[in-house]
Amino acid sequence: MHHYIVIEGPLGVGKTSLAIMLSEKMGGQALLEDVEENPFLVSFYQNPKKHAFQAQVFFLLRRYNLTAELAQIDLFSRVTVSDFLFDKDRLFARANLEDDEYWLYDQLFQILRKRIVPPDLVIFLQAKTDVLADRIRRRNRKYERAIGYKYLDRINQAFNEFFFHYTDSPLLVVNASEIDFVRNPGEFEDLVDQIQAMKSGTRYYVPMSSG
User: Fold this and answer.
1) Which residue in 9, 23, 65, 152 has the most C-beta neighbors within 10 A?
2) Over the stretch 168-205, which tens digit does the pLDDT of each residue have?
3) Structure pTM?
4) What Å distances lie between residue 17 and 74, 81, 180, CA to CA?
């Protein structure tokens, strides 16, 4: 049984919704990142070069503090499902920071990463950039209105590249472009079966309804 599960994927793919549903299904707890807590986020999307470093360091420290809480929890007594992977913070940093900023950021990242508890399973929700853009538009969050398609596509490709090489935990890659776990209970239950069957390595899951 998996006791610490992480749901990951690019902006708009549905990480938080699935993390909440999965934690409820398994009688566990959800460890959720509140992106809107970042006071630099709106400024970053309006002027990335000026505010990227502040926004990224805030995210790094916030994600570290949230993940560090797991060290105080008996992970074997209750399932924890998170909507972020600590290591993915570096992905955004590499995409958004200048070389000198990234060097400084990475020094801090490497120190903090040594104290992080690795997940028992990572679920990567993969989707086409057009799908992500549409979902972001429909949820209409104020701070996301300035996100451009080129930036979103660059981040999406960075996620694909990152998880193509990911080996730190068992990995379930889910084609999430044409499925809706929230509105379709059957698709959600099928995914739960796939999660429970995961043992090790990497598995690619393409739901029948997405074909």
Assistant:
1) 9
2) 999 999 998 888 787 788 888 988 998 888 888 999 98
3) 0.90
4) 24, 11, 10
